[in-house]
Amino acid sequence: MKILRMLASGLVMLLVLGLVNFYIGQHLWYLLETWLPGISAAVYWPVFLLIAFAYMIGMVPWPKAVKPAARLFKVIGSYYLACMEFAIIVLPLTDLLYWVLGLMGVQRTAFTAEAGAALVVLLAVFLIWGSRNAWSTVVRNHPIQIGKSAGTSTPLTIAVASDLHLGNIVGNRHLRRMVAELNRMQPDLILLAGDVLDDSIEPFIRNGMSEEMRKLQARHGVYAVLGNHEYYGGSIKQYTELMDSIGIKVLQDEVVEAAGLYIVGRKDKTAESMEAAGRKSVEALLDGLDLSRPVIMMDHQPTGFGIAAQAGVDVLLSGHTHRGQIAPNHWITRRLFELDWGYLRKDKLHVVVSSGYGTWGPPIRLASRSELIKLEVILEGSKHYSEEPVHSNPVLI
């Protein structure tokens, strides 16, 4: 029954994608007919559909001989996904404008070339600005005060990165910038809050990305948790062993002590549907811990804030949402999650949700930025500690 539901969902998704792309393709056909009279529909439609479904074609597990072509298709398809979202927003508005002009007696064929040129210019601006937001990273500073002691009189610096999505699109160049920026913080801890991989582990291994990640330096260690995309890739054992070999511990419903803190790493919520044992509750993970000491928890998907607060977690770090990545998707993530990006104080719990460092699909961001998080954790007993809650707005660097 479960397989039938998945099959039905897949067919519905293909049908919707087919209808959406036919709508986009028809509008592009009208424009090309104006710009290139005599263009052949027999040539246009196969080429358009190949590009429209290129991302899905690239995701197919092709034989090794055709994998380079599949990777190219995935890159082309990723950019088309951004163009598709742009078209879904602007084409209905264009149709509405032409409908109003039609009521005024203006023929639909009028101004087609001019309107098309204007949309192409807008698309170019969208892609250029979106690329800038995706590849140009900001560091957000969050000073956080915890009324517990970890045996240190100085604030702890914790560098956080989530949603790297390392693969065929986000590669070593972007990874090198992240490693350099995190190391520049001279952190006590580095925490990776899930989705280090973009599904498949193959490009991570082929491009030697683990060797770049090996360069991450923190006084008390580097820790990571799984995200939903590690589960989708299906190579969790291979991934965790590879990360362990370079000194990065992937916590799977585990707790470690470091820098006088407890670092709690939850399995991703996806484990509840993809693993028979599911994942442990927050209460079970914290059972037996000395809760007079600070507790920092990583949980890739930003859910269960109230449960974490009641259990005694002091800081909860998440990612997953990308803040919608491309506007107006952030209106959706804002409704789906109690906090889809930024900072929230819930009772004594500090929640920080990152918009992520990498991207899924197109390397394009609109109304979101590639970001890294620098936490300055001020503990009781520090000369910086005060009785008043401390948290300022993030500072962009």
TrEMBL record:
A Pfam match: Metallophos
Claim: Membrane is one of the keywords in the record: yes
Domain Calcineurin-like phosphoesterase, first and last residues per copy: 157-323
InterPro entries (UniProt xref): Calcineurin-like_PHP, Metallo-depent_PP-like, Metallophosphoesterase_sf
Alphabetic keyword roster: Membrane, Transmembrane, Transmembrane helix
Keyword Membrane: yes
GO MF entry, a single one: hydrolase activity
Transmembrane segments: 38-58, 79-99, 111-130
Source superkingdom: Bacteria
CDD domains, sorted: MPP_YkuE_C
Name of the protein described by the UniProt record: Phosphoesterase
Organism of origin: Paenibacillus riograndensis
